[in-house]
Amino acid sequence: MRADIRPFSLPLADPLETARGTVERRDGLLLRLEADDGSVGVGEATPLPGWTEHYDECESALAEVSEVLRASNTSGETASEEIDAGADPDDLLADLDSTPAARHALDLALADLRASRQRVPLYRYFGAENPAKSVPVNATVGDAPAEATVAEAERAAAAGFDCLKVKVGARQLSADVERIEAVADALPEVELRADANAAWTREQAQQFLDAVGDRLAYVEQPLPATDLAGLASLAGPVALDETLAEVGFEDALDANPDAVILKPMALGGPREASALASRAREEGIEPVVTTTIDGAVARTAAVHVAAAIPDVTACGLATRKLLESDLGPDIAPVADGRAVVPQGEGNGTADTWGHHD
Ligand SMILES: O=C(O)CCC(=O)c1ccccc1C(=O)O
Ligand SMILES: [Mg+2]
């Protein structure tokens, strides 16, 4: 077994303004596994504090992973032998429970390697019963004054998006209400979501929902991640994002959400996210898969996670255009409000390793 790590740094073309500040660049690490039979799996860790560990912690965790996998070439019943034999290195994965981005890299590399061996696309390996050509995606509209928000929303609608997510919570509540009303008036046919990134008090969140709740499919993370009682008490449709990263899926159920935002990078990997999508559906909760503005490897894997969900709703996967450059070619391009689902073996991004320098 070989295990190699390669760092990368991707600037955003279009920094994303949110209530938590601006996302300006995405630094991460690729992990490449090559089993003794020559099969390859590539994973990506692109940490984002607030959802995952910090970069330094992620880097050390992955350095440890590669050390364990290399060292074990010569010693006993080992993690690399487990992988070569087609099993999961459970102890190694468990060591990464507190570093979800690092765990994502290993989980994705393993899933890619195994799906490639089985000669199926990753979304079929995740259990999709039917072939899927594409999945619906939302456009992501950052914080900006009302006029600029409407202009951006109109550009997205003209490009074929019929679902938009607008960032809120970075300015006065009355200004956000005005922004949402202006977008809803300008684009009555478009499904609208708002994402407050945990910015509000209970009173503010309820005021927002009372004002524009009926024009929105839901408001994402209106309250701080751990205010489960407050979230449960809100009248109006609510989706949870930061709460899942902070308290986990099962505890988040106490907040009684209408939808859950599943970010594979924050949840320890695409296989975890895929399992949680099924759990959500069992609970009558709508799963929505999104990236943390990841590189091509993780973004493509998130598209596969979405493609394995029957009749998936629009997902937050149209994030390639926020990046100035990427790890490799985009094999899950977005057009007309949908992302193409790759049909090759595994994630389909094994070449990405060679592209990046
Ligand atoms: O959901 C989307 O449309 C794109 C992803 C997104 O908004 C996001 C991207 C990076 C970090 C946090 C978030 C978020 O959902 O809060
Ligand atoms: Mg969010």
Automatic annotation (TrEMBL):
Question: Which InterPro entries does this chain map to?
Answer: Enolase-like_C_sf, Enolase-like_N, Enolase_C-like, Mandelate_racemase_C, Mandelate_racemase_N_dom, OSB_synthase_MenC1
Superkingdom assignment: Archaea
BP-aspect Gene Ontology terms:
menaquinone biosynthetic process
Q: How would you classify this enzyme at the top EC level?
A: lyase
Region of interest: Disordered:
336-357
Ranges for domain Mandelate racemase/muconate lactonizing enzyme C-terminal come to 146-241
Which cofactors are reported in the record for this sequence?
a divalent metal cation
Q: Which GO terms describe its molecular function?
A: magnesium ion binding; O-succinylbenzoate synthase activity; racemase and epimerase activity
What pathway is this protein said to act in by its record? Quinol/quinone metabolism; 1,4-dihydroxy-2-naphthoate biosynthesis; 1,4-dihydroxy-2-naphthoate from chorismate: step 4/7; Quinol/quinone metabolism; menaquinone biosynthesis
Q: Which residues does the Swiss-Prot or TrEMBL record annotate as the active site?
A: 167, 263
Under Gene3D superfamilies, the record lists: Enolase-like C-terminal domain, Enolase-like, N-terminal domain
Keywords in alphabetical order, please.
Isomerase, Lyase, Magnesium, Menaquinone biosynthesis, Metal-binding
Task: Name the residues that bind Mg(2+).
Answer: 195, 220, 241
Q: What is its EC number?
A: 4.2.1.113
Purpose: Converts 2-succinyl-6-hydroxy-2,4-cyclohexadiene-1-carboxylate (SHCHC) to 2-succinylbenzoate (OSB).
Could you tell me what this protein is called?
o-succinylbenzoate synthase
Q: Which organism is it from?
A: Halorussus gelatinilyticus
Top-level taxonomy: Archaea, Methanobacteriati, Methanobacteriota, Stenosarchaea group, Halobacteria
Gene name of the record: menC
